[in-house]
């Protein structure tokens, strides 16, 4: 069963089916296959050749963010349970401190459930309550839908190496174990290449190398918070000589007879050209005037993303872009009370400023940012922190978001150490068993982005195990938090 439902097998089967379908159809026409297959691939990406612009921005919280002190249970019965569990480690938030960030959904949750955001997240709370943000409850990696009993049986496939930082960071970003060479953001970029004026700016990371924005064809372009990354050897005169600088530029970019040398020089030449384009592009556009908080590395990354969006028409007018930014420091096994609120403040202030920048640029309904992380953490305390978990709550922001709403199922507040009904969505110590998969979360974003329904399974290798077609209408392929 594990082989049948594995991410790798699902992706391979989908790619094989697509290839055979295309080649079988084209062989009947007598068309030259390599050329025709390329044309068929371009045709399937035609949905991205629209006149509008859309961008997705993954805001990654490295280290595994604590769900329980981010989206905090607030109704009296649930809060009482939360406080009893978390006060043991002195990491429970007071109910009075949560009142200013109480979330008021347009449609109340069943059973009187209520949530507030961390007290430091006033900006994101305001966006939620004004209809510009939503919360996806209890989402995490799944290969197939699972109950606690099925999880405990050992007879059902699980994501690779649960609760391991490196593996789960890879699973969240690529839907495969560490070592994966493409992410679901990059695979969406693959489909968008044909419709982008300059395909080099389809997938961009402002946080260094990230598998999320690596595609099978789309290459991730990495940028620093100060702008394009220059090749230092030819940025300035060498030993004070412009002639040496020019000679160096020729050496590292000219064609070579040796295959590997030639490819290396081609990559270098492309990097130099793109650096010049970006430097000119962000320099020629009017500055983004929205205030971003100082001393906030995430805000610096999101500001350069906003500047790139502002300069998109001078960068080849890409119609679809995928961005990756990241903030670290969430592996808080101890010293949680002193550090987590500050992390939440940085997250909220940066994402709020970025949303305001998209309003300034007139693209608020065309740009959607969303959070992701290695995993959630335990509700039970671990010294004066929390331990590695599984499911978590995440936030989606943008003008196209169906905001002021919760999506998915609100899990009971419990450490999950009994067989009582309230413990069925926990696997011990308050680790959440996800009731929504990353594939479902991603499919909702991908559909809004423009990925055709028939291409979703190739982008998201476990998605074929969810939804009505898989006999699981209780796990829909689209969670509904995005407008068309």
From TrEMBL:
InterPro entries the record matches: DUF1501, TAT_signal
Record protein name field: DUF1501 domain-containing protein
Signal sequence segment: none
């Amino acid at each position: 069963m594990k082989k049948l439902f594995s991410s790798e097998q699902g992706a391979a089967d989908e790619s094989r089916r697509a290839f055979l379908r295309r080649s079988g159809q084209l062989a009947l026409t007598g068309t030259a296959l390599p050329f025709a297959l390329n044309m068929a691939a371009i045709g399937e990406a035609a949905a991205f050749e629209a006149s509008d612009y859309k961008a997705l921005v993954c805001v990654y919280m490295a280290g595994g963010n604590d769900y329980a002190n981010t989206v905090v249970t607030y109704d009296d019965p649930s809060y009482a349970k939360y406080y009893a569990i978390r006060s043991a480690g002195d990491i429970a938030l007071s109910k009075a401190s949560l009142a200013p960030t109480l979330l008021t959904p347009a449609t109340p949750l069943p059973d009187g459930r209520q949530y507030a955001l961390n007290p430091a997240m006033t900006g994101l709370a305001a966006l939620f309550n004004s209809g510009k943000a939503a919360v996806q409850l209890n989402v995490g990696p799944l290969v197939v839908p699972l109950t606690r009993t099925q999880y405990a049986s050992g007879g059902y496939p699980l994501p690779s190496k649960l609760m391991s930082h490196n593996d789960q960071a890879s699973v969240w970003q690529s839907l495969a174990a560490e070592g994966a060479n493409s992410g679901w953001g990059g695979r969406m970029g693959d489909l968008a290449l044909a419709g982008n004026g300059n395909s080099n700016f389809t997938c961009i990371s402002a946080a260094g190398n990230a598998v999320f924005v690596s595609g099978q064809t789309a290459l991730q372009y990495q940028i620093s918070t100060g702008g394009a990354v220059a090749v230092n050897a030819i940025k300035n005169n060498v030993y004070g000589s412009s002639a040496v600088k020019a000679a160096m530029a020729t050496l590292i970019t000219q064609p070579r007879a040796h295959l590997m040398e030639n490819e290396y020089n081609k990559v270098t030449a492309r990097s130099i050209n793109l650096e010049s384009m970006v430097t000119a592009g962000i320099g020629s556009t009017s500055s983004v005037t929205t205030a971003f908080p100082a001393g906030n590395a995430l805000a610096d990354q999101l500001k350069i993303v906003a500047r790139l969006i502002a300069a998109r028409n001078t960068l080849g007018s890409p119609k679809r872009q995928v961005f990756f930014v990241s903030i670290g420091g969430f592996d808080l096994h101890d010293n949680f009370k002193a550090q987590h609120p500050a992390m939440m403040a940085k997250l909220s202030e940066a994402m709020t400023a970025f949303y305001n920048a998209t309003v300034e640029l007139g693209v608020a309904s065309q740009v959607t940012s969303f959070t992701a992380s290695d995993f959630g953490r335990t509700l039970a305390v671990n010294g004066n922190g929390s331990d590695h978990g599984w499911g978590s709550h995440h936030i989606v922001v943008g003008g196209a978001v169906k905001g002021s709403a919760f999506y998915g199922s609100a899990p009971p507040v419990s450490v999950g150490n009994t067989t009582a009904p309230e413990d069925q969505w926990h696997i011990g110590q308050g680790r959440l068993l996800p009731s929504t998969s990353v594939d479902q979360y991603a499919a909702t974003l991908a559909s809004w982005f423009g990925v055709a329904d028939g291409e979703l399974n190739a982008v998201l290798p476990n998605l074929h195990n969810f939804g009505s077609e898989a006999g699981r209408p209780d796990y829909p392929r689209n969670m509904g938090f995005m407008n068309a």
